[in-house]
Amino acid sequence: MEMTGWSQLHTMKNAEQGNRPLARATLRRIMGFARPHRRRIVHFVLLSILGALLAVATPVLAGRVVDAIVSGDAAGTVVRLALLIALIAVVEAALGLLERRLSATLGEDLILDLRRAVFDHVQRMPVAFFTRTRTGALVSRLNNDVIGAQHAFSSTLSGVVSDAVTLVLTLVVMLTLSWQITLLALVLLPVFVVPARRMGTRMARLHREAAEVNAAMGTRMTERFSAPGATLIKLFGRPGEESREFAARAGRVRDIGIRTAMAQYTFMTALTLVSALALALVYGLGGYYALRGTLEPGAVVALALLLTRLYAPLTALAGARVEVMSALVSFERVFEVLDLKPLIDEKPGAREVPEGPVAVEFDGVRFGYPSADKVSLASLEEVAALDTRGGDDVLRGISFRAEAGQTVALVGSSGAGKSTIAALLPRLYDTDEGTVRVGGVDVRDLSAGSLRATLGMVTQDGHLFHESVRENLLLARPEATEEELWDVLARARLDVLVRSLPDGLDTVVGERGYRLSGGERQRMTIARLLLARQRVVILDEATAHLDNTSEAAVQEALAEALEGRTAVVIAHRLSTVRAADLILVVEGGRIVERGTHERLLAKGGRYAELYRTQFATPDRGPGPDADGTVTGTGRPDTAGTGRADSRRTDTGRADAERTGTDTGPAAGVKVPA
After folding, report:
1. Is residue 332 within 8 Å of 24, Cβ to Cβ?
2. What is the pTM of this model?
3. Are residues 276 and 412 in the same domain?
């Protein structure tokens, strides 16, 4: 009876979810996931039925043992009955193990199928989905909701079948033994069930409140314990206030825990009391009938034992709808993610990027970031309603062509659309109008694998996974050999550092690479680019975090890596793009100027204005020299003017090939506010 109470408490925690209407479409989709496992489901149900039959047989045999003793039957009869009870117990235990094995296998296989489906689907979602979604909420779908869906097969299915069979058989046997006692026992059923139903709302409210306060405490710990968060707290945090705030949140968790524990204990005490009263009724009335000779003593014992088997399935079945609906809610939350349509799909029969040098072309491209309701879910953003704003043009008629082997630089104000142009090349987004071509082919007609193998990007933040140096590099080319890894590390000027690490290539770099310095992280991403050997490279402020010495070394490595390749460079520091084959000035989503460094300076337009502003000197005032060089500025010259000219002047491309670009989020994509 105690197990029944705890089961009912678990059900009540989800009582509010159980009020939702049954969705036939959801059931059909569940059957689709269950169909591959239908043979094991049938075996599982049959075992549940057989277990229910054995559960009812034991009380009946116990009653016969009592009758045999009272009537003075031969000792052999009692022994045979006892051995039969023991055999049933052994068989019941074996069936329970087998049933549990099938239950666990079904549940875990279902978890695997659902998780793979959600994971594969999420990988196909556009970058806009990840910029809006809270990572924790998305991970919860792969963990909590998938486990809730598993519960439908591992517990609810067997429970409903077993409880229904047990209830029917128990009632039949009890009515056969004494219909009067059986009916009277059923009269007490509302006293057993009603308190549970009345407690449902309170338990659900406590459960929801506990989840909220635990989430609030967990969120604060997650933010404060991450590497950036811990650094921020040490720089600006006030330890005393942080401790008091955490203690307040932890105190709310404690308070709700006490209230929940008391409610559970009160409920369990009430159920135990009702159970004891019901047993007292059976023994009292049954004993009275036995003394009068209208009922066998063994029947009284059998009725008492069967009573404990009667209330359990009755109570469980009373809450079965809640359990089923709770499982359906978990399925619906998983299907909610699966129903999000990816904005970017690979066409059937998609083409490969043509062999050889690759040109890049934008032809009349217009683009606006999609609104939240097209790429996200309110529950994943943890908001009441999705923002329907969006779709305003960020790019307005962008057209240019970078011939194979050329370097094109994008410059302009922050928010002008430069990073958005870069995001359209690897098809992180699709255009609203116009065409982006790689190798003369519309990127929408190319296979995703071929496009990834052709285009590489170095972003400003130098993101690394919490994995080893080796694993972070092999992300670019999994089949790379040990010698190739050391080669790219040497070319990125990282081989000495990696050899000095405790485990060399197998050293874990920490969350987002925080065990490395900013410059070391950036050089790791450049080494990854060198390993990938892509024919088109997008540089996003590739040397932003490097000191002068490291920058010079990496510039040389980039110059070697970009030799003969097409490069798109987004730059804030204009000194780094002077030698680009083509400079595009982007403002307000349009290309307002285009040309070489010298021509744009001579034109005296927006580029010249940006150049004068950036290289203004306090003693001379703004403006470059007549030949376009900048003197007396210190950093700008060493960043790419005088130093780059002294290093390499034969091709006129080395400076741009060794440059970086401006910024965006981690994926190199500018997200609208």
Report:
1. no
2. 0.63
3. no
Asked if residue 413 and residue 278 are part of one domain, the reply reads: no
In this structure, which amino acid lies at residue 76?
Answer: G
- Under DSSP, is residue 592 helix (H, G, I), strand (E, B) or coil? strand
- Domain assignment present for residue 175? The answer is yes
Give backbone dihedrals phi and psi of 427, rounded to 5 degrees, phi first: 60, 45
Closest CA to 73 of 305, 306, 302, 298: 298
- Residues 624-664: tens digit of each pLDDT: 443 444 433 333 333 333 333 333 333 333 333 333 333 33
Contact (CB, 8 A) for 337 and 296: no
Task: Give every residue of the chain whose pLDDT is below 50, as ranges.
Answer: 1-22, 617-673
Per-residue CA distances from 198 to 265, 326, 593, 608, 626 (Å): 15, 18, 73, 76, 87
Residue pair 316/4 in contact (Cβ under 8 Å)? The answer is: yes
pLDDT per residue as tens digits for the range 33-51: 778 888 888 888 888 888 8
Are β-strands 395-402 and 536-540 bridged in parallel, bridged antiparallel, or unpaired?
unpaired
Number of domains in the chain: 2
550 and 493 in contact (C-beta within 8 Å)?
Answer: yes
Cite the beta strand spans of 319-442 per DSSP E: 360-367, 395-402, 407-411, 433-438, 441-442
Q: How far is CA 42 from CA 34, 35, 45, 56, 526, in A?
A: 11, 11, 5, 22, 56
Sign of CA dihedral 623, 625, 629, 632: negative
Burial class (CB in 10 A: 0-12, 13-18, 19+), 183: exposed
Q: pLDDT of 193-236, one tens digit each?
A: 666 566 655 665 676 677 667 766 776 776 677 666 776 676 77
Stated as kind and residue range, the H or E segment containing 184 is helix 179-187
Asked if residue 411 lies in contact with residue 418, where contact means CB atoms within 8 angstroms, the answer is yes
Domain boundaries, position 131: 2-338
Helix (H, G, I), strand (E, B) or coil at 246: helix
